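Q: Given only this backbone (330 positions), what sequence would you predict?
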């Protein structure tokens, strides 16, 4: 009875949990016909929470196959993102065109280097390419990809004018790249290359992130370093192996040692893909807390299974009490 009453009330207010974007979509289509006739077409709608704030409307542009335009529309209020819709739509269209132009620069720069951009991380802008480095090829590959990144950033300077501080590129196995979901060709390029199923498929296997610094506003290809990003379960297994091995070694000098759960970045040793270096934090004595944050650190080089190779390099104090962590550069 209580559930029935609750549902009856919800039906009166919002359809008992069933929300629709139908009216917002109609309103968005009307706006597109009014302000950008023949240019914008709605291709997706997404419910926002709470629904009272409207819906996210996704447009494609008939005159720009790479661009995607996103905006919030609230048909009930007659607003877009709580503002007048004309201005919001104008800004969304400008942003869509600007991002599409930047994407074309990125894709073209890497294509000229012989690499297809198969995806783009929407949060960082980093491209994904197919590459399989080995101990024999990793150094040359990092320089090659760094040259592509330099070309990309220099060309992009004409589209956004932002200061270049570095670049990163994701490298995924060619076999994983071949098995990726293709996406719909009807989608704008910007949407297709950042689709959640695509990024999920690429990141479901271990991949590398190649990072580069910039000198005098230009990406330095020789500054390249790489880190490996394994899937969650593999990362957990690796961390457990490293922490267990380090604890065994430290126990000789510190019988009551506790190793922190801290799991930071593991960087490939130069010229290798089977040697990783990272920090392990520990406490020489239990500090009375449930877990050890780690006030001391060792720098460890391991094989891909987490077995330390060589001696631990002691860094010393990296935290005072439960204060902020201060790790030196590797």
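A: Predicted residues:
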């Amino acid at each position: 009875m209580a559930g029935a009453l609750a549902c009856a009330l919800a039906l009166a207010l919002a359809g008992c949990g069933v929300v629709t974007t139908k009216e917002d979509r109609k309103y968005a289509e009307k706006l597109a016909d009014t302000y950008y006739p023949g240019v914008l077409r709605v291709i997706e709608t997404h419910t926002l929470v709470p629904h009272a704030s409207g819906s996210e409307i996704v447009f494609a542009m008939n005159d720009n196959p790479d661009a995607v335009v996103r905006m919030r529309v609230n048909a009930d209020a007659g607003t877009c993102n709580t503002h007048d819709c004309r201005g919001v739509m104008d800004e969304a269209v400008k942003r869509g065109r600007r991002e599409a132009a930047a994407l074309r620069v990125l894709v073209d720069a890497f294509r000229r280097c012989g690499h297809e951009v198969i995806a783009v991380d929407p949060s960082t802008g980093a491209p994904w390419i197919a590459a399989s480095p080995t101990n024999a090829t990793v150094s040359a590959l990092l320089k090659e990809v760094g040259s592509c990144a330099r070309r990309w950033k220099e060309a992009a300077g004409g589209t956004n004018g932002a200061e270049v501080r570095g670049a990163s590129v994701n490298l995924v196995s060619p076999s994983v790249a071949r098995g990726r979901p293709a996406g719909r060709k009807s989608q704008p390029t910007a949407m297709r290359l950042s689709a959640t199923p695509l990024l999920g498929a690429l990141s479901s296997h271990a991949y590398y992130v190649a990072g580069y610094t910039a000198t005098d506003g230009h990406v330095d290809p020789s500054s390249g370093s790489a880190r490996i990003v394994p899937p969650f379960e593999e990362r957990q297994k690796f961390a457990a192996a490293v922490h267990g091995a380090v604890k065994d070694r430290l126990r000789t000098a510190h019988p009551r040692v506790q190793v922190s759960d801290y799991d930071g970045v593991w960087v490939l040793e130069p010229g290798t893909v089977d040697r990783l270096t990272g920090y392990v934090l520990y406490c020489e004595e239990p500090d009375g807390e449930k877990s050890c944050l780690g006030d001391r650190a060792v720098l460890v080089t391991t094989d891909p299974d987490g077995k330390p190779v060589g001696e631990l390099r002691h860094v010393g104090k990296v935290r005072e009490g439960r204060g902020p962590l201060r790790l030196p550069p590797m």
